[in-house]
Design brief:
Elements: H1 3-21, H2 25-39, H3 45-71, H4 93-99, H5 103-106, E1 110-114, H6 121-134, E2 139-143, H7 144-156, H8 160-169, E3 172-178, H9 187-198, E4 203-208, H10 215-219, H11 222-232, E5 236-240, H12 260-265
Parallel strand pairs: 1-4, 1-5, 2-3, 3-4
Helix pairs in contact: 1-2, 2-3, 7-8, 7-9, 8-9, 9-11
């Protein structure tokens, strides 16, 4: 064996050793194939280095995205490519694709996706969250009920400020299903504290089946609702989706004709919170200022 033949195995051994030390498993796995292509003059030395590094970078980026999706509670992945814009002609496709460029995140704006159940609000919200994660931004997804449960628990355990600080640091907070379930007493005040701490500091995507005029009923307090909307509509992008439920499109014929669209489109009605008789107790929550 000539000197060159002895040199190549020794060099490859050192490269393998270095790749292990640098914790580059994908590059280590691809090394032999890249060397074979190099030996057959299929690629140049610079192309070999480029491919080796690209393989490793792709693995790390996929791992980062997977971890970020899990930490952001985006277990169900929805994409804009998978959204059927033809089913919702009221949507401006170009406007949604512009949002996917994430300028609203950098500007700390709030995107409101409003419409009846099943019209794609959650799909679009999740898809925007996925795009933000791909771009390296911190994202967290939850329903309003889940969010308020977290904040109420943190308050009981005297760590509300710490939890609010966590939400303040996020580049994008996605809150789904505003108006679907009644808000627990004090929940509106807790949500206001979160909105206030993120105001002009971080972007949000909110989905709701209720109009802004109904938020007083949703949160059980017109004063809190006004204070919320004052901040949430200051730097806002409002997208109204009109149409029937995408999920029920294959079963619409089973609905009676006179209620086919109303039953699908109309949102559930939140039951009013019963008021106790007699003199009301002192409220432990102070109304936020407007």
């Amino acid at each position: 064996m000539n000197a060159l033949g002895e040199l190549i195995p020794a060099t490859l051994d050192r490269i393998r050793h270095d790749l292990v030390g640098l914790k580059m498993p994908r590059a280590l796995e691809a090394l032999d194939q890249i060397v074979r292509r190099l030996e057959h003059a299929e690629i140049s030395a610079l192309e070999a280095i480029d491919i080796l590094l690209s393989e490793e970078l792709t693995l790390r980026e996929n791992s980062r995205i997977k971890t970020a999706l899990r930490m952001g509670r985006l277990s169900t992945i929805k994409t804009l490519a998978g959204f059927d814009f033809s089913f919702q002609p009221s949507l401006d496709r170009d406007r949604i694709l512009t949002l996917a460029q994430l300028g609203f995140v950098d500007r700390h704006e709030v995107v409101h996706l409003l419409g009846p159940p099943g019209t794609g609000k959650s799909h679009l919200a999740i898809a925007l969250g996925v795009e933000a994660i791909k771009a390296g931004k911190s994202v967290y997804f939850c329903t309003l009920a889940e969010l308020l449960a977290q904040l109420a628990r943190a308050e009981r355990e005297e760590r509300l400020l710490k939890r609010l600080a966590f939400f303040r640091r996020l580049a994008l907070l996605v809150v789904d299903e505003i108006g679907y379930l009644p808000v627990v007493p004090g929940g509106g005040n807790l949500f206001f504290q979160l909105v206030a701490t993120r105001y002009e500091r971080g972007a949000m995507v909110l989905t709701s089946n209720r109009s802004f005029a109904e938020w007083g009923d949703v949160f059980g307090d017109p004063v809190v609702a006004t204070a919320l909307l004052d901040r949430l509509l200051h730097h806002a992008i409002v997208i109204q989706i009109e149409g029937s439920s995408y999920r029920l499109r294959q079963h619409a014929e089973l609905m009676p004709e006179h209620v086919r669209f109303k039953a699908i489109i109309n949102p559930p009605i939140a039951m009013p919170t019963p008021r106790p008789r007699g003199r009301p107790p002192k409220n432990r929550y102070a109304h936020p200022g407007t």
